[in-house]
Automatic annotation (TrEMBL):
Protein name per UniProt: DUF4331 domain-containing protein
Signal peptide location: 1-26
Source species taxonomy: Bacteria, Pseudomonadati, Pseudomonadota, Gammaproteobacteria, Alteromonadales
Entry keyword set: Signal
InterPro entries for this protein: DUF4331
Amino acid sequence: MTIFKRKTLSVAIALTCAAVTAGAIASSHREAPNITRAPAVDSTDFYAFNSYEEGRDGYVTFIANYIPLQDAYGGPNYFAMDPNAHYAIHIDSDGDAVEDVSFVFNFTNMLAADNEGIALPIGPEGDQKMVKVPLKNIGGISADDSSAANFSEMYSLTMVSGDMQSGERTTLTPSMGDMFKKPLDYIGNKTFTSEAEYARYAESFIYSFAIPGCDDMARVFVGQRKDPFVVNLGKTFDLVNYVPVEGDSAPGAGDGEGFPGGITQSENNDDLLDKNVTSLSVEVPAACVTGDGNGVIGSWTTASLPQATILNPDATFAKPSVTGGAMTQVSRLGSPLVNELVIGIGDKDTFSSAHPSDDAQFADYVTHPSLPELLNILFKDAVNTTLGTDIETLAPTNFPRTDLVTAFLTGFPGVNQQATVTPSEMLRLNTGIPATPAESQSAFGVAGDDLAGFPNGRRPGDDVVDIALRVVMGRLCHPIPVAGEDTDLELCAPEDASVGTVPFTDGAPVDASMIDSSFPYLRTPIAGSE
């Protein structure tokens, strides 16, 4: 593919920030009314990035996280995937907003002893009965011995070439063994001994597999992980119950010389600090998913359920209900946070069930986003009082927001615009941009002069919250540093964004040091018991 000059690349990707992050100040947890009733199919975050593990040049990693806000101690049943659901990662290689390749996960839950569950002999000799145990394990578990497990999850992995309805389906199998398995959640250290031992146990569930027509092997892991997203979640949704501007002269300076009363950086501001999540991670050779396109791919994750469910009045573990009808999409996530804070509450479930090719129906939410005006209502008077100013509005005034439309729906030629341009919401990644090693990554991605970061795809260590807050309030209406030079992007004028240069933040820091530097990248989950 064509390689563009660094400055041109920087400018174009920076433009993409505008719309990709237009509504983002929290992660995709419980983002639509209907999905709150089905947490097992609620997608929380989606990542797509060029793999930065040493020796993995030319690979792309996709991570789809599900089941939000997991408390590590959430026994005795913990957090199993839904065996009735289809979980999928979709990739559009040519820009028609229709998937060209999908990886589909289907789960099977099993009890030990032929799905009856482990039973123990209870009572004295002569009056003894075999009674099933109520727990998911009856002893210690390790990478070498899982015989004490009373519950297990397996999954099939299917590749669909073409659209999901009519595409060719290929069953993928692990290079060793006959099925893919998911590790038990991190119940605690009496079960798994230590964090290191759980990590060794979970690592044994990383599988290599072949993709037909590809020369190199792919990898997959499904299991519980520490939630990598950081956000001041509770206060953010309480009408942004903090002053969302850096209170120090620089993040972490600790000098209180920033905005008066502004929030400062602390892990205590991260409401997900003690939460886990269930991760579906796939690493594939980039050449296997770029197709006949120009090397830029769009991707997203979905979860679907059968249209009809009839509860079994005599429910059993094996048959709690009967399902039927067509599979129906109930969850969708590409670019972060769109459904929470861009889409109106009455259309959130519609967005969850919509296909990217139908996204024109949501255009008004991009051309006239409501979040900046909400922030204006909440903070304008306080800002004017604190600073002794008379700012008429904090919200950008360039309507329609054509800068957001261009970046959000079409991409930019030569950078993240695909071979065919179809306005749609996807997480776009240029597979031709080399990955940045973990130690050199900037949490601000492109804005931090790191072209391999958000919004060119998304890595777990990218601080999309702070980037988003600044962009949505008009940062791109002012000159921004591109390859060391202040550059006017000519999307809008400084007078269109009165607070466009303010360092907005939620005070919850994140960077690549908080993420592992090898597949599956997300860290070992928090133990349910020390």
